[in-house]
């Protein structure tokens, strides 16, 4: 992605913890090995797992022109290397952190895509996009399992990016990457310092912002436009959307769940909402 001087960005600040991290689990590690934007510092695998993944590893070497030189280790060795309780499936790699993506980068990509599709200027009101461009925004969702599942859904249903808060959010750790099952390598996970300011930028770029809330005035499927730019905002479990976040949504919407059991966790709700945006888009 295009580089900017950090002073020009209102998105994620410089990450003081940027560096290397252990990734583990078959899908997460294979996706990282196949990502040219990751530097692989060490690759550890058990003999049993290596024998099961021979074709996948060979394909990664062919496609990336990256020579994989694994350390053959025992399960007990991986247990020592990784956090307690890590479900590693016999494979792990020590990889560089991904280069940070900023909200300005995402919005610029959207703008360039519109220009390529024939939009003459920001004031070209006759331009009508085909389908929908979707951003998913998380308001202080902290559980890495939920966020990993959300990233999987966002990648599966073609969202442009997942945007979260810098603080009180799930960081892109090994456990999140494992839960994302490789999706962290395919969809930008963007942190912002000020979510309200980010929502203002997103709206200035022409997105309609829909906050998911049980008391939403319309069902999401009824509220969505047939095409255009859409931002879905999900709140944390229990607390939901914060007040200022709600006030910066164009509309609060709900999902048509059963009255007798109307509660979905945030990752399930995100999957349903993303499906609705992809359906008939």
Description:
The chain has 281 residues and is of the alpha/beta class. It has two domains: 20-96, 2-Layer Sandwich (60s Ribosomal Protein L30, Chain: A), CATH 3.30.1330; 103-278, SPOUT methyltransferase, trefoil knot domain (Alpha/beta knot), CATH 3.40.1280. It has eleven helices and eleven strands. The protein has helices at residues 26-33, 47-52, 54-64, 75-81, 103-116, 144-156, 174-180, 195-204, 220-223, 243-247, 266-278; strands at 20-24, 40-45, 71-72, 91-96, 132-139, 161-165, 189-192, 208-212, 218-219, 228-235, 251-254. The protein has a seven-stranded parallel β-sheet, sandwiched between helices. It has a four-stranded mixed β-sheet with strand order 1-4-2-3. Helix 7 links the parallel strand 6 (161-165) and strand 7. The longest helix has 14 residues, at 103-116. Mean pLDDT is 88; it is low at 1-17. Pfam families: SpoU_methylase, SpoU_sub_bind. It comes from Kiloniella litopenaei. One of its GO terms (cellular component) is cytosol.
